[in-house]
Amino acid sequence: MRIEGTETLHAPRDRVWALLDDPQALASCTPGMQELRPTGPDEFEAVLSIGIAAVRGTYKGKLRITERTPPERYAVQVEGTSGAGFVRAVGVLELEDQGAQTGVRWSGEVQVGGALTLGSRMIPGIARMLAGQFFQCLDRKLQEGSP
Amino acid sequence: MTTRWLGAPIKRNEDPRLLVGQGLFVDDVQLPGMLHAVVLRSPHAHARILRIDVRRALEHPDVLLVLTHADLPPSLREPLPKLIPHPDLKHHKTQYTLAPDKVRHVGEPVAFVVATSRYAAEDAAELIEVDYEPLPAVVDLEDAAAGRPALVHEDIGTNVAAHSVQRVGDYEAARARADLVLARRFVVDRGCASPMETRGVVAQWDPRARQLTVWDSTQAPIPIRNGLAALFGLAQKDVRVIAPDVGGGFGPKIMMFYPEEVLVPLAAMRLGRPVKWIEDRREHFVATNHERTQIHHAEIALDREGHILGVRTVFLHDAGAYIPYGLIVPIVAECTLPGPYRIPNYHAEFRAVFTNKTIVSPYRGAGRPHGVFVMERLLDLAARELGMDRAEIRRRNFIQPHEFPYDVGLIYQDNAPLVYDSGNYPAALERALEAVDYPRWPEEKARYRAQGRRVGLGFACYVEGSGIGPYEGCRVTVEPSGKVYVATGVGTQGQGHFTSLAQVVAEALGVDVRDVHVVTGDTGAFGWGTGTFASRAAVVAGSAVHLAAQAVRQKALQVAASLLEASPEDLELADGQVRVRGAPSRSVSLGEVARAANPLRGVIPSEWEGPGLEATRYFAPPRGTFSHGVHAALVEVDPETATLRFLRYVVVHDCGTILNPLILDGQIHGGVAQGIGGSFFERLVYDDSGQLLSGSFMDFHIPTAVEIPEIEVIHQETPSPLNPIGAKGAGEGGVIPVPALVAQAIEDALDDLELEILRMPLHPDALFELIQKATRRGS
Amino acid sequence: MKPPVFDYQDPASVEEAVDVLARHGAAAKVLAGGQSLVPLLNLRLARPEVVVDINRIDALDYLTEESGWLRVGARVRQRRLEREGDVRRTVPLLAEAVRFVGHPQIRNRGTVCGSLAHADPAAELPAAAVAVGARLVAHSRSGIREIPAEEFFTGPLTTALRPDELLVEARFPCTGPDWGWAFLEVSNRHGDYALCGVAAGVRARDGRVQDARLAYAGAGPVPVRLRQAEVALVEHADLEEGIRAAAAEARRVLRPDGDLHASSEFRRHLAAVLTARALRLAWSRASTCSGGAHA
Ligand SMILES: Cc1cc2nc3c(=O)[nH]c(=O)nc-3n(C[C@H](O)[C@H](O)[C@H](O)COP(=O)(O)OP(=O)(O)OC[C@H]3O[C@@H](n4cnc5c(N)ncnc54)[C@H](O)[C@@H]3O)c2cc1C
Question: What ipTM did this prediction achieve?
Fold first, then answer.
């Protein structure tokens, strides 16, 4: 399943990039992220607790930063497993310099297995909702941090 | 007065018991101390297993046993048995009991957990840690055939399990002479049977008697018994397999071995306690065999008058991850394609291809719907091209009633020549057309059109190979109570054998059908047989029942003759009595005859061939019988919402001698419903990574009473000369022509769009796309 | 398909129920009709530590009309909407829409509030709630608040309810006889979630549309109300032109996701087709003052 979207972050691109490049900042904005432990260069072990209403699960998995082209492009690969199945996703962020703001074009390729496949019709909507929460959080951080 | 039982519309003997909840399905088996098993299945379509750690599961307080491949005895670490070999099947890969180092489809068993309850077993299964290295999944059939994007079985260097060619005449030469050659690519997608009762196994091991008893929701209890005896090194007599009431089979339950059929007995023997495993619906969608995907590149060559000169199909058959059941489905597809038509030159060629999907084995129709879809579509398109009426082109090509036995020139699934035994194809079509008033259809259609309604008429013809060997057997026993007990090896999955087979006996012995008790599917009751598949039970077991009942009849006459001091020729059997014809006061009950046949003192005459009113007979047909039929339907299409409504559905059905028209109607109704399901509602949708997206009844849409029209059945009876009762198989005719018919009806309803429907099943989204394309083309 | 271990509580009053919810927060899940929660439990997709069964709370079992509002308590089964004649008169859209929810067996158990709280984007009742402008009453230890339907649905399976809140009531405004309502949907099989569903209402005066409502199920992550299309209907003097404009608006604005059953394109097409059909039906009911739900 492919999903994509665009967002506007209210800070110049360099600042956005700096935030994205800080794993802990990233982690704090990722919905449900409970733990993010580095295991190697650009590799992390993660524990996420994601709950969409009644559908709630704790996913253990890996996060790998597969591409980093400052200050434009950033790609991650995530894999998580829970009792309900597994999720694998590849996400790409592209930052566009818009002066005081930064345009973000994001896309993701999501694959699920196990009981989660039964909810496949809702996954794009859910992924978009989670992405929205992620970017809102980033934006908040950027604005808080702004002078 | 003698009652005729055979052919009578008798209500089913088994229904009162089933309707009040007194059936015995596998999950009804409750044994003291019984444990519950769960299978941990692969969530990946294709992956290497790097590590399995079961320690945390074993620590669960309610867990008694956890098995992985490494824990299996050597004989069970090997791939499970190859069922039906074929010279063209180069790579007969079969599934494992538990996957050793690689998984090849979502749902493949990886570990087996036994606990004190199903709940605990599921909790523990979650504690098993498996590290997988996902591999590219082989999902698309055409890619798979080309070895892309991976190999399902690396060691054979290809995904093609078999390549097979059959030829009749010389297609190329026919093509060169033809006035019209028409070629298309046809796709039939995956489907599955969805029986109400999923699979299930209970096993009990008695270490003192060294007896293994297995209750299994299977269509093949005797082969399962034989196989289990071999795998566990037991005598066949020490293994008893019972297929009690089975809540629907439809083909997939003929497969053996499903891993659970081995694992549950193994666990019961290891633990010395009974073990139960019931497949849940989620498992069923991925762990019970599927069918249907084939892609045909087909071509028809005709002369100007619409006579078929030849047909060619070159097709791919999706075998799934393993191919235990061999080439039955593609062979049946290529052998069903010619149907009721004279095809002097035919070239059929297929490749059976491995994919990372659930295993394929026959499902009701078993290749027949594919063959009929291709053939009927070719004729429809050819008729359109030639400007000829679609009924007329069929009339011109029918095999005529005087041409039987008709040798199609192919070798069928039973390795015997494909020879049609009998039939009347033109009559069946004319009856169907008359029923829907085909001659007046153009006006009728215009009338609908004037009301703004789009209604199409579709019809399709088929021939159904059925009733194949090798054999079935039966023992008929009359007890001193006068009740008759019948035991046969075929299992029953709702087809009404407790009644139809009883009717055969009642007819022969002149007893009330309610006094005839049939036992099927218990190897303890009858130990020889093969199984219920290919619409063969009524034909093959029915004939064996007939022979055994006739033998008992002869013996009853002999024994009664001495009791009544009359000659056997002067006696008749009726109303549970043997009596002297014309002197009804001189009679004995059949029960008394049975008692007399088993005396405590005295001599048994040698011509009695032993004591008791009992006989066992076998029937081994030389080859299969061929039923046939025509379906016709009126289908309303809403072109704006791309949805369908069936307004009328007529079936003309010829399966030889009818044993019980009520039961036969039931078979046909259910078949049509399943056919409609497989044409427009039910879909197994996979994503690119080999995940089944429609793996629940929320997304796999079995049609309900709302979607299924009333079905009108017209019976035609052309008996088979190949068996003593003249019967032919009736199990699959309901399903077979439905996709072809639905396609034709939709095209007819939307004839201004000149659609070509080349894929089945359709569904609203796909129909929408077809309509959009056609509209764009038109504008 | 057996649920993991959970605790079970069955309070007899709303107060007790919200206490339990306050104590357990997101670890608790309310059980109403169980028609969505129990399958999720069995699939182990839902793993609450505590299941709070509200079926013993008799105080939530009411379906009444009061000062122009139809009040539906949290224990009211969906089936009552179609069985009780008053609903056809007071909020005809509900009686229409509910017939598309599953099958009678499901509606005998499933609750109206449960369907709203579950917030399936393809469900019928949430779309109907948005169309008529329902208000949802949430109760927690900190008090009671009313949430307008349009603010209630925030994402797929996601609502504005906090984990400590119990949805105690849904309120639907009663509409007058000059309104006509219709609910239409396309699903592959009767009783399935909609590929696309439309709730339409029009108010007729002097042969013109005076007011209109349009809301969609299965056309986005939440039920969508299309105000621009409603305006288009009112603005066009000619009904058919208005309907065409509304349908075009639906096709232009809605961005449903595609899934295994229907592409995004097909869903948009269905939205437009159903918009026109539902509006015509609603109009015929409005102009004859017959409300709706006579099909
Ligand atoms: C076969 C089948 C077909 C169906 N078809 C359809 C269909 O076509 N259209 C459709 O809309 N639905 C359909 N449904 C779902 C059905 O409508 C459900 O009843 C409904 O979604 C949930 O209502 P419930 O009372 O059963 O809630 P439950 O299943 O008990 O709960 C559902 C969710 O809502 C929460 N919840 C319930 N009540 C409250 C409350 N008062 N306060 C706070 N949270 C609450 C629960 O915690 C849970 O998360 C179908 C269900 C089945 C089994």
Answer: 0.94
